Amino acid sequence: MTDAASAVSSGGATAPSLVGLTRPELTAAVAALDVPERQRNMRVRQLWRWMYNRGASGFEEMSDLGKDLRGRLREGHSVARPAIATTQKSTDGTIKWLLRLADGNEIEMVYIPDQEHGALCMSSQVGCTLNCSFCHTGTMPLVRNLTAGEILGQFMLARDCLDDWPTDVSQRKISTIVMMGMGEPLLNYDNVAQALNIVMDGDGIALSRRGITLSTAGLVPAMERCGRELRVNLAVSLHAVTDEVRDVLVPLNRRYPIAELMRACRDYPSANNARRITFEYVMLQEVNDSLEDARELIRLLRDLPAKINLIPFNAWPGAPYECSSNNRIHRFAKLLNDAGYSAPIRTPRGRDIMAACGQLKSASEKIRAAAR
User: Fold this and answer.
1) Residues noted as catalytic
2) What is the distance of C-alpha 105 from the center of its chain?
3) The model scores a pTM over 0.85
C-alpha cells in the first residue's frame, strides 16, 4: 500500500487526482502540460493503462513516460485515492474501512470475501437524504455527493489494500461491486455512471457489467436511464408490500409509491430471466414478515424476472425495530420458494464491526453526535 493511500489527511493541500477523469478530460489535462498534440492520445493511453490496469499510485512508476513529463504531472496532479482513517476486520473476514476525503468528510467502504473472490460495497454520497427508518445510514444528514474520482478511488484503494493489482480477471480478489454503501446512487447518477464506465472500460479495469449491482430505494425517474445507459444489475430496496408500511420504512415511497416502482421495474431495459432484478427485503418482526405479506409480495412480482434477498435485520444503537425470528423468516422464504422465486436468506456478514447491511455510518459522525 502506498503512502498516499494509507496516510490520514492532516489538512494539507493535495494535488487534484487524475482518477475519475474521462478520456476527453484527461486529454485536456495532458494538453495543459504542453504535450504536443500528436502525442496526446498516446500519453492518455499510457496514463489510462498505468492507473486502471496496473494500479499505479504515483507518476514515478510510469516508466514509459518521459522524466520531464512525469515531473510536470507530479507538480500539478496526483493519482491519489481517499485516505484510510481506520480499518476494522470482522471475525468472518469482512473488512470495513473508514475513508477520509480531501475535504475532511468521511465515508465507509466494506469488502466481503467469498471462498475464491469477494464483493466490494461502495458509497455514493457522504451521508444520505432518504431517511429510511430501519437503516443506520439514514439517520445521517446528507452532506454532499461523491465525485466520480472519489467513487472510483474506493475501488482502487481496496485493490491496493488487497494487493489485487494487476491480476487476471479470473484471479481477482474483488470480482463484484455493489453500489449499496452510504447514499442513494441514483441521486448522484452522473458521477456514479462516470466511475462505473471507467470500471467497465476494456482497456483499464475491465470489470464486467454483470459483476456490478446498483441498489436504489426506488428513484423511479432515473431507473430507466440507468438500465439503458449502464446496463448493470439492479437491486431495489423494497422492504414492504403496502404503501402504508413502505411510507414509513422508505419515505421516498411517498413520492414514488409501489405501483409506480413496479412499473419502472417491469420497464427496466436490462432485466430478463438471465439477469433478474433483485428485491431487497429486510425482515422486521411483526412489521413486514407475515405470511400475508409474503403472498402480496408474490402478487406484486408476478411476471417480473425477480429474485428476493431476505435480509435479517441488523440492529444498531437506538434502532426502532427487531429482527424477525428464524421461524418467521424461514416460513416467509418457503412461501416465496414454493411460488417459484429464488428467495435466499442472506447470512449477515460483519455484524461485529457494524459493517452489515443497513449498519454503515461514518465513525466521525457518531463521535460528533456523542459529543453533542
Assistant:
1) 108, 357
2) 17
3) yes
